[in-house]
Amino acid sequence: MALNKESIKLLEDKAKKLKELKDKHGKRRPVLIEFCGTPKSGKTTSISALNIFLKRNGFNTELVGEMAGICPIPNKTHPHFNSWTLFSSLAEIIKHYSNNIIDFIIVDRSIFDALCWFQWLNTSNDEAPYLDDMTFKSYENLLIGSKLLSSLFSLTLVFKANPEVCMKREFSFLLTEKSGSIMNENVLCSFNNAIESCLKKYESKFNKIVTFDTSNEERPEEVNRLVTEKTLDALLGLIKEDIGYLPVTVSRLLQEGVNDFSIIKNEKIYFGDRDVVEETDSIQPIPIAVITNETKTKVLIVRKSDKKAERGSPERNRYLLYTGGHIRHEDKNGADNNLLEIFKNTLHREIFEEIGESIYPKDIEPFLIYNSENNKSKKHLAVCFVIRLNDFNHKNFKIVTEELVKKTGSSKSGHSLDISEVVENYSDNLEPWSSNILKHVFGAFPYDKQLDLFMDT
């Protein structure tokens, strides 16, 4: 039975509004979605339906197919089989993940699915499992120990069905009734148990997991509708995600310009919808990175694009001596509510999303910059990390976000400049935080052309 026209229209209207929102605000990265679960539980059908819907409604998608079908290792119960399919999938994901043109990356089995199969290999035979405890723990720590990999996925869709239904679907397309090494009721039953165990153990390690029981074959179109709806919600989450903020009382502790980090070190971070937070007087901490060379004689300079810098923003039509942005919920992962660690996680993510680099400010103590010159500025607080790279002079930085002006024409955005050049040619076009950085970090002051003219005379 097909979905009724009203349900289809609701989905298409939602997709249209989301596309308008995406085109207006941009997105930070592709929405990465994993489909996984019991073999023959309906994943492939839902993947196809979702991909067609997204493409026909104006989104760019990339499919990463199931690697098990092309795995050269014949023994499916050997850990090498699961390892090969996992890392082959990750290689494809990483290849596409930095491509901002892509809206959705749809993956048929990846990290969560691999965890379920490792769990099964470790527990399917109590006395003589296919995978020993130590190796299992090593895989587990690699995949979810740091959240580096699991946090990539915006949405994980887990499909389950009872073994009898799965076997019926299997035999409906075959010319034999003989079971396979995996496709038999005993294995499917124990694998379903492994899925349940992984859901309990790892659900908090992933951004969002949604489960579907597809044992009822009467309404597969309803599953496809729910999958599509959850996928569109995931995109909305990337565009309008909750941001971190500090209580307004923090502003009373700050002075104009540079402040010591100890002022807020023990504060608690809260989260709320960005549009709502912007309407309050709460303080939004913005972790930023000044990227320079070891001797601090050069700096990476960027510029916000006109479309992304709102009217009234101090960044509009100005150059910045930093990269960075708002704190997101995902930045709390693994930080145990430690404010400094949350800031470092934010910066690590933001640097990747803006210039495609993986830089983590491990042992760097930040300082604060506060400017209350207008209503917008006084709600934001720079948490500034100075990152000195010993290979800075060999770096060719590349802008990878729509929010910043790319290296085009005469623009210096994305270029590394000598501090003397910044002072002489751009200091009168820096936004306030960058002016503070120029003085506090580099000991440099704006080039006074009037004084130079006076001295010449």
Question: If you had to describe this structure to a student in words, what would you say it looks like?
Answer:
- Mean pLDDT is 87; it is low at 449-457.
- Strand 2, helix 3 (79-97) and strand 3 form a beta-alpha-beta unit.
- The protein is elongated.
- 38% of the residues lie in helices and 16% in strands.
- The relative contact order is 0.11.
- The chain starts with a helix and ends with a helix.
- The protein has two domains: 5-239, 3-Layer(aba) Sandwich (Rossmann fold); 243-456, Alpha-Beta Complex (Nucleoside Triphosphate Pyrophosphohydrolase).
- The chain has 457 residues and is of the alpha/beta class.
- It has a five-stranded parallel sheet with strand order 2-3-1-4-5, with helices on both faces. Strands 7-13-14-9-12 form a five-stranded mixed sheet. Strands 11-10-15 form a three-stranded antiparallel sheet.
- The longest helix is centred in the first third of the chain and has 21 residues, at 5-25.
- It is built from 13 helices and 15 strands.
What share of residues are in beta strands?
Answer: 15-25%
Arithmetic mean of pLDDT: 87
Strand order of the largest sheet: 2-3-1-4-5
> What's the CATH class of the largest domain, please?
Alpha Beta
- Helix fraction by DSSP (H/I, runs of at least 4): 25-40%
By secondary-structure content and strand pairing, the structural class works out as: alpha/beta
The poorly predicted ranges are 449-457
Summarize this entry quickly.
This protein is an alpha/beta fold. 38% of the residues lie in helices and 16% in strands.
